[in-house]
Design goal:
10 helices, two-stranded antiparallel ribbon
Length: 327
């Protein structure tokens, strides 16, 4: 006899975490490969840049390999288990990958300095495309209702975002821009590789700083959209801070002429502050999941979990118990 499977229409498309887990795993493998084929590993992909910028790329590769790749794999495992922390964590990692590998691709001194980076464009493009896919999937899987932060955490988050934006603008970029305008030959980084210099300025002052200011002010004003965006934004900024701190440490270790102990310590402090806020902000999600995991699927938080259970086969030609009782 024919068997008919009855499913609720919403249950067919609610599992958004499984594709997210697969995309995160692929992104982690692609980032690890890009780091290992570069000067940090096999030295097959040689960047077309100056020695001082190469130190920064080495620091970025180290951060990607030893921090971002494990973080992406952890997010993949959490997504596979439908943990509510997975979507904001994945969104932050994807934002980091888009930011970083866009600079790696565009910020090279092509045809001017030796290198082989253009031969690995398909690999870098794959990282970029996978990051885009993770960003979309993670944002769609983000729980529709996120726990509001406490007053203390809200003030700390908003203030830290505004301080980080001020540090980037006035402590990092403005002094170097003034030097580039007045005496460009005095700065080795700019004189040797001007393309990545202005690329970083554009992305930090055009994307990172405005996002931090907007969300920081929004969080302090208790705006709902800002509190929602703050979860993945904190992860993204923490990842960027880890990467920049790694760059500063590598530059100091190699005796780079543009290395600055003050900036290294400053970014280290910012990294610790952002990491602490990120953990504190995401902790309620883990607590909430433990209390409600039996009732809802967090990849579709508005759908009861019973709708995701295997459908009950109904055989044609047989009467249901309720219909038999009515007869």
């Amino acid at each position: 006899m024919a068997t008919q499977l009855t499913t609720h229409p919403a249950a067919r498309a609610v599992d958004r975490c499984r594709p997210l887990s697969i995309a995160l795993t692929a992104l982690a493998l692609a980032m690890a490969t890009a780091s290992l084929v570069g000067p940090l590993g096999l030295d097959l992909m040689r960047y077309r840049t100056s020695p001082t910028t190469l130190h920064q790329l080495l620091g970025s590769d180290a951060a990607a390999l030893f921090v971002m790749v494990p973080l992406a794999l952890a997010a993949a495992v959490l997504a596979y288990r439908r943990h509510p922390v997975a979507p904001p964590l994945a969104t932050g990692v994807a934002g980091y990958a888009l930011y970083t590998y866009a600079q790696v691709i565009i910020g090279q001194e092509y045809l001017r300095l030796p290198g082989t980076v253009e031969r690995f464009f398909p690999l870098l493009l794959a990282v970029f495309l996978l990051a885009e896919a993770v960003l979309v999937l993670a944002w769609r899987a983000l729980p529709s209702s996120l726990p509001a932060p406490s007053t203390r955490l809200r003030r700390a988050t908003g203030t830290t975002l505004l301080v980080a934006a001020g540090f980037l603008t006035f402590g990092l970029h403005l002094p170097s821009m003034l030097t580039a305008w007045s005496d460009p030959a005095a700065m080795t980084e700019y004189a040797s590789s001007p393309t990545p210099f202005w690329m970083v300025k554009l992305m930090d002052l055009g994307i990172v700083v405005p996002a931090a200011v907007a969300v920081g002010v929004g969080v302090l004003r208790r705006a709902g959209w800002a509190q929602r965006v703050a979860y993945p934004l904190l992860v993204w900024l923490t990842c960027l801070a880890v990467s920049v701190t790694s760059m500063a440490v590598v530059m100091l270790a190699d005796g780079d002429p543009d290395a600055s102990p003050v900036l290294a310590v400053g970014f280290g402090v910012v990294t610790v502050a952002l990491a602490g806020l990120t953990v504190a902000a995401h902790r309620p999600l883990a607590v909430r999941r433990a209390a409600a995991s039996s009732a809802l699927c967090y990849c579709a938080p508005d759908i009861p979990r019973e709708l995701l259970t295997p459908p009950v086969p109904v055989q044609r030609g047989t009467r249901s118990p309720a219909r038999s009782a009515r007869r």
